[in-house]
Amino acid sequence: MARWRKYGSSGRMHQAAGPLLFLCLFVPVATQGQDVRLGGFLQLDKRFDIGGNDITIADFYNRFRFEVNAPIGKQLSMFTSVDVRFYDLSRVRSLVGLEDLEQGYPTDLSLWEAYIDVYNFLLNGFDVRIGKQRLAWGTADKLNPTDNLNPDDFSDLVNFTEKIPTWAAKFMYYVGDYTITAVWLPSFTPILLPRNSASLFLGEQSEMFQSVVTLPAPEPRNSMFAIKVGGNAGSWDYSLSYFNGYDDVPILRDVNIPVNNTTSETGSLDFGFPRMQVVGLDFATEISGAGFWGEGAVFFPEEQVSRINLGRFVSTNIELESAPYFKFTLGGDYTFSNGVYLNGQWMHGFFTERGSAALHDYFIVELEKKLLKDEVKISLGAGLEVSQWRNVTGNYGYGFFPKVTYAGVDNLEMTAGIFVVGGTTTTLFGSWNSADQVYTSIKASF
Fold first, then answer.
1. Cα distance between residue 316 and residue 314, in whole Å
2. Which helix (H) or strand (E) holds 200?
3. pTM above 0.90?
4. Residues in CB range of 356: below 8 A, 6 or more apart
């Protein structure tokens, strides 16, 4: 197993800046005369935390994305994108920090996607994509239990359904109305959590104790793979999938608690990642102008047992049983004659939930209406969570997500919204009750 190490963001930034700057400048020049498409966006965000006693400015990022899509002949193309996240709040905590540009103006720079497409490779209808890529599986609207190939990106709670592209080799073969997809992921990438807010998903103990995260060793035997067969029958699209890999959410493996009260040690936690297999099925159709979709996945995890070390006393606890459990999402959408758009979904089992007894039910509804020649869109979103149906009043969570978007200028969106969640302590939304936000953003695309 490989140990996770924390490097300074300044070092990462300096190491990546050269190659990525070369990419941004050289690729457009080198591909002049070809059908190269450049694109991306600049999104400026300002978040205000309103969940505490005082209103504070959140330590949240702005974002710049630069994309290059370069077809090279009839059978070959290349796609790359650079993602820059830059923060408004300084992280200077000492006089020495005033000498560090990265502490004063924190910036995270990454190569977001970078892959090569080869079409009709060796035979007609056989396509290959190799490189860092987003592998989106499932038919539900972002709440996809079958979408397990890329790690979750929870760095933005307002958009908690995002994923991060990872390195993979994807093979697609088209046979009539069927598509066969095979994917190999040579290494594992874990979840990305909100800055200074791991406890929102892993519990308060994750921040109270020192922690170590152990990643699967980068060996061929730890690589992941998946296969999917998709087709259609009339107005019905469907697919059957299988995934063999790791859960990207860490799970507790060891607890070390010092018994000598005279020491300053606070104890430590050791986290790992459970291996799992997932069999999934999804469908989507349209009936009388209304869209319907559904997907379900049966998870087959490996049993996970943690050790609690209290001096000479050692005990164990089963963190995750090997018994299979089932997650699903059912939903639909419809646009009424007055232009009101309705989208509703029922999700059984959030992304971070494991084991039959731990799966909660989530009901997410969104209403949208465009006004003023479609230049203004009002969205009213709401969510209800139930963790125990036998006692709903003591096991519920709620969320309200209203927002207003102005799009009266081409390629420009201006948004203002509210993210408010709460509930009992037994629910996910209830554990987020201090994460309420008011946010504004302006996004220019090119």
1. 7
2. helix 199-202
3. no
4. 323, 325, 326
